[in-house]
Design a protein that fits this description.
6-stranded parallel β-sheet, 13 helices, alpha-1,6-mannosylglycoprotein 6-beta-N-acetylglucosaminyltransferase activity, alpha/beta, 2 domains, GT18_cat, Rossmann fold, Glycosyltransferase family 18 catalytic domain-containing protein
Length: about 450
């Protein structure tokens, strides 16, 4: 076993405050393939130079000598302004790392991750990558993964997968997967998972939008329909979604409410050309804002009396944004025990973590139950809520978990794992290990 703090004399210098440190003036060896990436390269260069300077003068601040390398398209997308679910998770992580004072270096690919790692092998605590890159690094035993033949590569136990879903998408298993939700809380019918819960906070984005008291919200009452695409309303696809246009029309008619949404066309033009026409609710019942920016989205969400889930997208951040703005969430349950519908352990729903909250915060409604959907919206109007953020989703809680992750002895974790598991993905399934059959 290679010693993590002895790279066979291949790295000169003592990488601790007060020691000699010979580093190049430029962090990145080659120019970026995409000029847009300068938005994340420049801050990384600045962080690197500050680290080099503080080490030379023994003036590093708390955690500054703890280096995190990030190779993730979701982080790069976030720094370029995108706001999808994975990007919201990434944005929270970026803020968390900054708050804790770590030196964070963003890279473009695994090759660049290795180049940066070789500059600071003893200071790099973890390397955050997209799930597929954790497998690709394991496959590259000559270039990426540290082995006897590649002693200056990245130790596999330092590589953590940044992954939105509950599956063990890492060669060492779920412990090495950073998750946005506490998937260990899910019911048995969902995918219970012991991934490492980092989580994300929506406090910053939520607080940018002023809370609107229920009596100050628009009349007639508005329901925000969580539909990203117009294809959600294609009749041929109704089996994939919780509510038909007739169901939504009934909600509007029974409650006098208005349906609001931001449904756009597919990002895949070829798919859009062959897509059947959507069957939208009656034109008098809804307003579709199309693709809108985050500020307007949060404003319209804050004006609503409830968010109506459509079954997809799964585990979206929108219900948490809604609850923070004082807007209840109607969560469609897609699967249940026909003989015992109230047995929550057999449920599968759009947001299984939000499903654990009680009314009046979250209303769990079985797919296709039109009357229950109408009743849920009426109850949401009759029983308004104040702003609600689970304690685990507050920034201080996330900072605590992040610090624990960075300070974990991952080498010891791998050694403990090896005592009982010799299979792929920490002996956990499903993990698509067959896609990377030459990893092990």
């Amino acid at each position: 076993m290679l010693n993590d703090f002895d790279d066979g004399g291949r790295h000169s210098g003592n990488y601790h405050s007060g020691g000699s440190l010979e580093l190049s003036d430029t962090l990145y060896v080659q120019s970026s393939k995409d000029s847009r990436f300068e938005v994340w390269r420049t801050p990384s260069e600045i962080a690197f130079r500050k680290l080099r300077s503080c080490i030379g003068t023994s003036s590093c601040s708390t955690n500054q000598e703890k280096v995190i390398i990030v190779n993730s398209m979701y982080f790069r997308h976030t720094l370029s302004g995108e706001t999808g679910g994975e990007e919201i998770f990434a944005q929270s992580t970026i803020v968390t790392m900054a708050n804790l004072g770590y030196t964070v270096i963003h890279v473009e690919d695994l090759q660049e991750a290795v180049q940066v790692y070789r500059l600071l092998p003893n200071l790099v605590r973890i390397v955050i990558v997209d799930d597929w890159d954790s497998f690709l690094c394991w496959k590259d035993k000559q270039g990426c993964l540290r082995t006897e033949q590649n002693p200056t590569g990245i130790p596999g136990y330092k590589v953590l997968s940044f992954y939105f879903w509950p599956f063990p998408r890492h060669p060492l298993g779920p412990r090495w997967v950073l998750s946005p939700e506490p998937y260990y809380l899910q019911t048995a019918s969902e995918s219970i998972s012991n991934t490492t819960y980092l989580g994300y906070s929506i406090e910053e984005s939520c607080r940018k939008q002023k809370y609107i008291s229920p009596d100050a919200r628009p009349s007639p009452p508005q329901a925000w329909v969580l539909a990203k695409l117009l294809s959600y309303f294609v009749p041929e696809k109704n089996q994939f979604y919780a509510w038909s246009n007739e169901d939504l029309d009934a909600v509007a008619e029974e409650t006098g409410g208005v349906l609001m949404m931001a449904a756009g066309s597919s990002d895949n033009p070829s798919a859009e050309e062959t897509e059947p026409m959507p069957a939208m609710p009656d034109q008098s019942h809804y307003v579709n804002h199309g693709r809108i920016g985050q500020p307007l989205f949060m404003q319209k969400l804050a004006e609503s009396r409830a968010v109506v889930g459509m079954g997809l997208p799964l585990i979206s951040p929108t219900p948490w944004n809604a609850l923070c703005l004082g807007v209840p969430y109607i969560n469609p349950v897609d699967v249940w025990d026909q003989n015992n519908p109230e047995d929550t352990s057999r449920w599968r729903s759009q947001h299984p973590i939000a499903a654990l909250l009680p009314e009046p915060y979250v209303y769990n409604v079985r797919k296709g139950d039109r009357q229950a959907l109408i009743a849920a919206f009426k109850n949401a109007i009759a029983h308004p809520i104040q702003s609600y953020i689970p304690e685990r989703m507050r920034m201080k809680s996330i900072e605590t978990r992040m610090a624990e992750i960075v300070d974990t002895d991952w080498k010891a974790e791998e050694q403990n794992l090896a005592k009982w598991c010799t299979g792929p993905c920490g002996c956990q399934l499903p993990c698509d290990a067959d896609t990377f059959s030459d990893v092990y």
